[in-house]
C-alpha cells in the first residue's frame, strides 16, 4: 500500500483546493501566473491553476504569514538579512525598481528584528551598493 506522500493524494487535494479557491474567488482580471501541481514519485501532473494578480498577492500574503508564525522566536542577524535580501529579490522579480521603508515595515514580522536593526541593515545595503537612495525620503532604488 502506498503512503499519501507517494500516491499523490495530497497533491490532488491541494490542486482541488486551489482550483476551488480560484473559482469561488472569481476575479475578472486576466491571470498573471499559473500554479502547476505535480505529485511524486514520478511527478505526474495533477492540475494547473491560473491566478490573477489579486489572488497572487493574497496567496503570497498567506504564505508569508505562515512563515512568520513558524519562524524561530529569536531570528539571527544572518536570517534577517536573508529575509531582506529575499524581499528585495521579490520586488525585483516583480519588475519593481524601487522599494520603500513601508515595504520593509510590512515585512518586519518575517524579518524578526527591530525597526532600528532593519534601518541599520538598509544603510549597510546602501553602502554596499545593493540599494540606492532616491530624492524621495524612504524610497530606495534596487541596484
Largest β sheet strand count, sense and barrel closure: 3 strands, antiparallel
User: How big a fraction of the residues is strand?
Assistant: 15-25%
Structural class: alpha+beta
The span between the termini is 53 Å
As laid out across the biggest beta sheet, the strand order is: 3-5-4
Rounded mean pLDDT is: 83
Task: Write a brief caption for the model.
With 143 residues, the protein is α+β, with helices and mostly antiparallel strands. 55% of the residues lie in helices and 20% in strands. A hairpin with a 5-residue loop joins strand 4 and strand 5.
Protein described:
The chain has a 3-stranded antiparallel sheet. Strands 1-2 form a two-stranded antiparallel sheet. The longest helix has 18 residues, at 53-70. The chain has helices spanning 4-7, 9-24, 53-70, 77-93, 101-106, 108-111, 115-127; strands at residues 31-39, 44-52, 98-100, 131-133, 139-142. By secondary structure, the chain is α+β, with helices and mostly antiparallel strands.
List keywords for this structure.
elongated, 55% helix, alpha+beta, two-stranded antiparallel sheet, three-stranded antiparallel beta sheet, 20% strand, 143 residues
